[in-house]
Amino acid sequence: MFFSDRRKELLLLLREEPRNIDTIKELLNVDASSIQPHIKKLKDAHLITEEKKVYALSETGKIIVENLEPLLNTIEVLEVDDSYWKTHDLTSIPDFLLDRIDELGHCELFEPDLDHMLETPKAFIENILSSKEVFTFVSYFHPEAPSLYADLAENGTKLTLCMSENVVRRLFSNFPEDANRLSRNENSKIFIYQKPEPIPSIVVTDRFLMLKLYENNGKLRDQLLMSADKRALDWGKELFWYCVKVTESIEEKSHSQ
Prior knowledge:
Blueprint: H1 5-16, E1 19-20, H2 21-28, H3 32-44, E2 48-51, E3 54-57, H4 59-78, H5 82-87, H6 95-98, E4 107-110, H7 122-129, E5 133-138, H8 145-154, E6 158-164, H9 165-174, H10 176-183, E7 188-193, E8 201-205, E9 209-212, E10 224-227, H11 230-247, E11 251-252
Parallel strand pairs: 5-6, 6-7
Antiparallel strand pairs: 1-3, 2-3, 4-10, 5-8, 7-11, 8-9, 9-10
């Protein structure tokens, strides 16, 4: 019943409100001969009803469609790249967020080719430079990050950075100028955690969510999963604060340092 994209579209359309055949044809961009067989199947399955040539969801149909949309959204998330979800460790995502993974919406997977292994994807740079607020949880050091975040803070972006001790140590020892620009800027807050991290990296802003996960073998590849869906941003903020909470022992770096 649900393997047909057309029938799924029709059910989701009728979820909004009852429709007559002319409205259905117009909104789904179909003709009567192509949509009528699907209508018949749904009527025979008692998922939709017809009264005075107006079609509506039956009570059973309402129950099914209410659960169908999250399922379809979850499939859309997982289909971004089959091999990605199969090969990456999802146990680092808490159950209460994993149960709502459909909220990630339309995701894109970015992986650099051999000629650009150390370069940050252009889509990430463009979006973070346009962001007004940035939350970052990170356990590994990227050489492009210090100047990028320092520039953001100086340009008025509100930053909340939660980093491991090793990352902070490299930041202040290898990039002291950028570290001072960050630590002294009133727009940035730097937190240091001492406990093992739940995930390698998450960046969530008012524009997008970026997530990086370990592979099942514990290795970390330079693959970025990104989404700009509104619900994904809220989901990402919950994951950020969850990571901050479970790492405990958080210390804030003074701006005067």
